[in-house]
Specification:
By secondary structure, the chain is α/β, with parallel strands linked by helices. Helices cover 47% and strands 16% of the residues. The protein contains 14 helices and twelve strands. An eight-stranded parallel β-barrel has the order 1-2-3-5-8-9-10-12, surrounded by seven helices. Helix 2 links the parallel strand 2 and strand 3. The chain starts with a strand and ends with a helix.
């Protein structure tokens, strides 16, 4: 199983950290849309030899042309090791944080993916650019703005999804699915894979499923306690969002979501984390020693995904532990 980890170093250290992770055996690194630009660290890490991926870049505030140019250049810089992962976010963030438009997220994402793919095809194969979708129109590509064929081929376009409609759409038109980290084995198997099958239908087109796991990992009892305490904060944050209620619903925890949501609006973050009990941590994360975490990842996802993104939020994990986890997943 291939392993990606979050590239979480300070920006100026991104290249050096990517090389260190490569030496630990890591196959790739990913960034997400957090406190910093999602593409900049990958630009610095592109020459390190690891695979690079946005997991995910917010699609709606950006033009497909902007996304295509960034993806094209990162594909070239990395020697063909880039994946463009796109996500929708939620309405509040798109409208109030990004100041962008929100409507019909599944159809808007479909249009964005198809538009990016059309632009990439035009550059790679010399096709006339004539994309006319519901939300995007791209019909002009003078030679001065055409980068020409990428020697490494066009980069794949993947979609991060949780709900059944977005997941099925991704399986229908994208090159792969990025399974959101707030998930359980039961939700993944009963809902995510069912939606993928629906979207794929009888298609034989190559399609990649990449899972992301929130990992609470430690070699000692103390390390594991601190890791589990840290991930509780993230789980409470995710759980407060209505979009993630279906995951809780599958496990019989649906009533927790509005309670977390109310506390979040009151800024009572510590109380929120206190509502995430041990069974929830066990179901929503991968927790244990590196060897135990590797075994859990294989059990939950190994028959459906050949690649996993490991996310260690809010606590320090040693390089030795990362190397042990990666070695176990490679074996």
């Amino acid at each position: 199983m291939s392993v990606d980890v979050w590239l979480s170093a300070p920006l100026a250290e991104s290249a050096a950290r990517a090389k260190q992770l490569l030496e630990l055996g890591v196959d790739g690194v990913f960034t997400f849309e957090g406190a910093h630009d999602v593409f900049m660290p990958l630009t610095l890490a592109a020459g390190s030899g690891v695979d690079i991926m946005t997991n995910v870049a917010m699609a709606f505030p950006r033009s497909p042309m902007h996304l295509a140019h960034a993806a094209w250049d990162l594909q070239a810089l990395s020697g063909g090791r880039f994946r463009l992962g796109l996500g929708s976010q939620i309405r509040t963030h798109i409208e109030r944080r990004y100041g962008s438009a929100w409507s019909e997220p599944v159809e808007r994402m479909r249009d964005t993916v198809l538009a990016v793919q059309a632009i990439l095809r035009a550059w790679q194969h010399g096709d006339r650019l004539d994309y006319r979708g519901r939300f995007w129109r791209h019909t002009l590509m003078p030679p001065q703005f055409d980068p020409g064929p990428n020697p490494h081929g066009a980069p794949p376009v993947l979609v991060g999804a949780l709900g059944p409609r977005m997941t099925a759409m991704a399986a229908e038109v994208a090159d792969g699915l990025l399974v959101m980290p707030f998930n359980t084995e039961r939700h993944f198997r009963e809902r995510t894979l069912a939606a993928v099958a629906k979207g794929r239908g009888d298609s034989t087109r190559p399609f990649e499923v990449i899972v992301e796991a929130i990992v609470a990992m430690g070699d000692s009892e103390r390390e594991l306690f601190e890791a589990r305490r840290a991930v509780r904060n993230l789980l409470a944050f995710y759980g407060s969002t209505p979009a993630y209620r279906p995951v809780l619903e599958v496990e019989g925890w649906a009533d927790l979501q509005p309670e977390l949501n109310l506390l979040s609006k009151q800024g009572r973050w510590r109380e929120m984390a206190g509502l995430i009990d041990d069974p929830m941590v066990d179901a929503l994360t991968v927790s244990g020693t590196p060897a135990e975490c590797a075994a859990l990842i294989r059990r939950r996802f190994g028959d459906s995904a050949a690649r996993v993104c490991c996310y260690f939020p809010g606590y320090q994990v040693s390089d030795a532990a990362i190397a042990e986890l990666v070695a176990a997943l490679h074996s």
